[in-house]
Amino acid sequence: QVRLVESGGGSVQAGGSLRLSCVVFGTTYCTYDMSWYRQHPGKEREFVARIDWSGSTNYADSAKGRFTISKDNAKNTVYLQMNSLKPEDTAMYYCKTYHCAYWGQGTQVTVTS
To answer: What is the pLDDT of residues 81-95, one digit of tens each?
Structure first.
């Protein structure tokens, strides 16, 4: 059984930074590749970033150049460093096992102008 626990969300002014964390409990093959998604109010969840077992990453166009996904295997934690935040980044952010349907509970990010 896999459990994902996010933290690090909050309210920040435009141009600011936040770092989200996702602690992974119960590692399995599902947790080799991890990702972050976000959901704007009234919209479907959308992909933000992914990191695979080797550390290779890929990003949504909206995140490229501003967000960085990383992981610390010793801490079973995946991070999303978000810089140069914009009001349109306001959303609930979710950690997810990329190939399997395990989701965290989400952490709210609010960016004010």
So the answer is: 999 999 999 999 999
Distance CA 21, CA 24 (A): 10
Q: pLDDT (tens digit, 9 = 90+) per residue, 63-78?
A: 999 999 999 999 999 9
Q: What is the DSSP string of the chain?
A: --EEEEE--EEEETT--EEEEEEEES--GGGSSEEEEEE-TTS-EEEEEEE-TTS-EEE-TTTTTTEEEEEEGGGTEEEEEE-S--GGG-EEEEEEESSS--B---EEEEEE-
Q: At 113, list the tokens.
A: 């102008």
